[in-house]
């Protein structure tokens, strides 16, 4: 497989990762990223303009995905902390209710 086809396949997977991320399906995004990694490891130093354009497009999408992943991680962390606080409050209520 030539470098351009390799990068086209990697770009297609990158678009799949982006679609999964937009849907909030980070498990699928990670699966696709794992599928894409071997392709990216096969990329050689090819200076053809078309090849460089594909690399830049993948890099641009990856930068956006990293930002989205960081935002999602922060949101999930906040949701988790809020859920734990609600669980603690419910436990306290149950303990207080047992006293009566």
UniProtKB/TrEMBL annotation:
Keyword annotations of the record: Bacterial flagellum biogenesis, Cell projection, Chaperone, Cilium, Cytoplasm, Flagellum
A Pfam family per the record: FliT
Subcellular location(s) per record: Cytoplasm, Cytosol
InterPro entries, per database record: FliT
Main localization, broad class: cytoplasm
Name by which UniProt lists this protein: Flagellar protein FliT
Taxonomic path: Bacteria, Pseudomonadati, Pseudomonadota, Betaproteobacteria, Burkholderiales
């Amino acid at each position: 497989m030539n470098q351009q086809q390799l990068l086209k396949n990697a770009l297609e997977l990158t678009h799949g990762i982006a679609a999964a991320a937009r849907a909030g399906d980070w498990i699928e995004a990670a699966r696709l990223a794992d599928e894409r990694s071997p392709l990216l490891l096969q990329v050689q130093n090819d200076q053809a303009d078309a090849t460089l354009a594909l690399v830049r497009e993948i890099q641009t999408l990856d930068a956006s995905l990293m930002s989205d992943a960081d935002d999602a991680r922060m949101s999930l962390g906040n949701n988790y902390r809020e859920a734990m606080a609600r669980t603690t409050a419910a436990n306290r209520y149950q303990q207080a209710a047992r006293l009566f």
